[in-house]
Design goal:
The structure holds 2 protein chains of 2 kinds. Chain A is mainly alpha-helical. Chain A has 9 helices and no strands. Chain A has helices at about 20-40, 40-60, 65-80, 80-95, 100-105, 105-120, 125-135, 140-145, 150-170. The longest helix of chain A has 20 residues, at about 20-40. In chain B, about 10% of the residues lie in helices and about 35% in strands. Chain B is globular and about 70 Å long. Classes of the chains: A mainly alpha, B mainly beta.
Chain lengths: ~180, ~425
């Protein structure tokens, strides 16, 4: 990893020494995971994550909380592209349909595909709320901040999303 | 956490998995530089265009207030903004999105939330929801976003990080007009929903489309406003000065000739009904039903299909809110209620961004939108039910004429239903 110029030393970090590089290394993996769960495509998740970090780099001098910033930026990035990505994901799923049988023996892969498929079946806000709460393990208030909505909206979307996932992933009954 | 939630956390973590490897920091720097370049190019071009427009208007038409709407793409107000952002005021899309001193030495970036691809090229906008007929409504949120709510419940962001409010959709759903507020007032912006191009229409607020495509709006200094009527791309057909009136809301009557204007000036009439095509005719001022001291009009909405106008009223001093529907208001001395609904029983549990889960809720403004498990769809016109979207500045309320009242968006500064949405 090449080092950034000294000009990208963080301003808001308490000792003023945290570099963008350190923030990048600390948050990249989790951010890609978050983006992947939201959009269902690894390459696009990595692309959206790179865009989010680039945005943060532009504003680095006034970023106080790199992790929170980049999570919110990547949620915005994914959501602003959501329509196009969703259509592309559907096309991808159709294209990949033929080889699913060959891979069905791999329970782990099958389970991941099931999770992605179930997430993809949720409306955007439900998916975002569930991923932020149960992957990022954010509090409702933190998720509300990322989603730019009320805590009550996070609660209702999470509850509906969980109910739906319960049915889709485990064949449970809808509690709603 | 119950067992399912525990398992879900593990499965999500397993699915997210380990990335294939982070890009080099140099790649992030290149992307950041490209964002800066896009910012400089687009932002600078827009600023020059605005400056040229201001110079032309102040030198050629120094005495006339410009109230014309120009939708010609060659107009200097047109900015090519793939992501649908409409204002040079676009700000940081990320957390803490408030502008500070650090922003001032850096051009703003209208393309920040655009459809920029990995190679830096801009996608041709496909329009929200994939097809015009699948767009259910447009909502201006208090989170400074203009959102398209699609028939299946998805939301596409049309514009981000601009203080948007009061969207109005063209009858053919070809575009939406909305307000962008700043410290100096409000500007009306037209967004072409097919191309994503935005056009600055000049100062103005409270846009309202008639079914024939004529637009009414409030123009001018808030201290001396005018009611302007015109067709997009043409000179205004009518302008009526309103003195020092404080205008709260504007809507066309279902007759597509009269314009209802709700105002809140001290000692004012509350509701005025103008002839939209004859500035020489004095407006009528129908009284509130069962007029009591302190009763006042707060908002107005129109249902073309049912031929009704709906008003939000504060009934008496200290009393609650009421929604009243009426017919033939332009020829009435008093608003004669057809339906009256107490708004104090509002259900605040509505979830606008996810209407597909609202199971059977009728969801819009008299044009027959409804919501069910399959998403939003238009109801048959003979369903005999009508409802409106009305806003109080923070929430958009669904107000059916014969059903329970619900909030359809808790954080909205206005919403508009797509009149061209396909019926079931």
């Amino acid at each position: 990893v090449t080092q950034l110029p000294g000009s990208v030393q963080g301003r808001g970090q308490t000792d003023g020494t945290t570099s963008f590089t350190a923030a990048f290394e600390a948050h990249y993996d989790d951010t890609v995971g978050l983006a992947y769960l939201l959009c269902g495509n690894r390459q696009r998740a990595e692309d959206a994550t790179a865009e989010a970090f680039a945005k943060m780099l532009r504003r680095w001098s006034r970023v106080d909380n790199p992790g929170a910033y980049v999570r919110r930026a990547v949620v915005n990035e994914i959501n602003s592209r959501f329509r196009r990505l969703r259509l592309e994901r559907q096309q991808d799923q159709r294209r990949h349909g033929d080889d699913r049988g060959q891979r069905a023996h791999d329970d782990e892969i099958a389970d991941r595909e099931a999770v992605l498929e179930a997430l993809g079946a949720l409306p955007r806000r439900q998916r975002t709320a569930v991923v932020l709460r149960y992957y990022e393990q954010m509090t409702e208030a933190e998720a509300a901040d990322v989603m730019d909505c009320a805590v009550g909206t996070v609660k209702s979307n999470t509850a509906r999303g969980l109910d739906r996932l319960r049915v889709l992933l485990e064949g449970g009954t809808n509690h709603g | 956490m119950d067992e399912f939630e525990d398992r879900l956390h593990r499965r999500l973590s397993d699915t997210a998995g380990a990335p294939g490897g982070a890009p080099e920091i140099g790649e992030i720097e290149r992307r950041a530089r490209r964002q800066r370049w896009a910012s400089s190019t687009l932002g600078g071009g827009f600023a020059v265009a605005v400056l040229a427009f201001v110079v032309v208007m102040t030198t050629v038409l120094p005495l006339e207030r410009d109230t014309s709407i120009q939708l010609d793409p060659s107009d200097p107000g047109v900015a090519d903004q793939p992501g649908g952002e409409s204002s040079a005021d676009a700000e940081d899309p990320g957390p803490g999105g408030t502008a500070d001193a650090d922003d001032r030495d850096e051009p703003e970036d209208p393309a920040d939330e655009g459809e920029q691809t990995a190679d830096g090229s801009a996608d041709a906008p496909a329009g929200p929801c994939g097809a015009r007929e699948r767009l259910a409504m447009v909502v201006a949120t208090t989170a400074d976003r203009l959102e398209a709510v699609c028939a299946d419940g998805d939301v596409d962001v049309l514009a981000d990080d601009v203080a948007v409010r009061n969207p109005a959709m063209a009858p053919d759903a070809s575009g939406v007009v909305y307000e962008v507020a700043d410290d100096d007032g409000s500007t009306l912006v037209w967004m072409d929903l097919e191309t994503g191009e935005s056009t600055d229409l000049g100062e103005g607020r409270l846009p309202a489309f008639a079914q024939d495509g004529t637009l009414a709006w409030i123009s001018g200094d808030p201290a001396s406003p005018s009611l302007v009527v015109g067709r997009p791309g043409q000179e205004p057909t009518s302008e009526q000065f309103l003195g020092t009136m404080v205008v709260l809301d504007v809507a066309w009557d279902p007759d597509d000739r009269h314009v209802h204007l709700v105002e809140n000036s001290p000692g004012g009439a509350g509701l005025l009904v103008f002839d939209g095509y004859d500035a020489d005719t004095s407006p009528r001022a129908p009284a509130a039903p069962d007029d009591r001291d302190g009763s006042r009009f707060l908002a107005v909405a129109t249902s073309e299909e049912s031929g009704l106008v709906g008003f939000v009223l504060r009934v008496g001093v200290g009393d609650g809110l009421e929604f009243v529907t009426a017919q033939d208001v332009p020829s009435s001395d008093t608003v004669q209620p057809r339906d009256r609904i107490d708004l104090d029983d509002l259900d605040l549990d509505g979830d606008p961004a996810d209407p597909s889960t609202q199971g059977g809720l009728w969801a819009a403004d008299g044009r027959g939108l409804r919501s069910g498990d399959g998403g939003l769809s238009r109801a048959p016109s003979d369903a005999g039910r009508s409802s409106w979207l009305v806003g109080d500045g923070e929430t958009v309320w669904l107000v059916p004429s014969n059903g329970s009242v619900s909030a359809v968006h808790e954080q909205a500064r206005g919403a508009a239903v797509n009149p061209a949405m396909v019926r079931d």
